[in-house]
Design goal:
115 residues, 48% helix, single chain, alpha+beta, 2 helices
Length: 115
């Protein structure tokens, strides 16, 4: 990508130096070269945007919750929270989570204090 930007910058500098003594053929050749550079830049930008979208989706998938231990496809979503039967008085909770693909349910001990 950096090489394309450098090439475009060089092309712009060449355009700025154009003088009236250039032949029509030289001018057309320079325009053709610049168009090619712009097409390359557009292609690289589209590829970078596609990569960005893919990475954003991957981040979303990875941060959207724990994967299901049964089907390995779905994400575990919290569907309920109750005080832990033993450690509830000190703030611990049981979170009931369910897979959004296979509906597998689990109870997970959660410490809101983070300890």
């Amino acid at each position: 990508m950096a090489g394309i930007i450098t090439d475009l910058t060089d092309g712009i500098r060449r355009l700025q130096k154009l003088n009236k003594e250039m032949s029509e053929l030289e001018l057309k050749e320079e325009i053709f070269n610049l168009r090619q550079l712009l097409m390359d830049a557009k292609e690289a930008l589209m590829s970078a945007q596609e990569t960005k979208r893919d990475l954003e989706q991957k981040i979303k998938d990875l941060t959207s919750g724990k994967k299901c231990s049964i089907c390995n496809e779905g994400n575990m979503k919290v569907i309920g929270v109750i005080p832990h039967p033993i450690f509830g008085p000190v703030g611990d909770q049981l979170r009931i989570v369910q897979c959004d693909k296979c509906n597998h349910k689990e109870e997970i001990r959660f410490k809101p204090s983070g300890a």
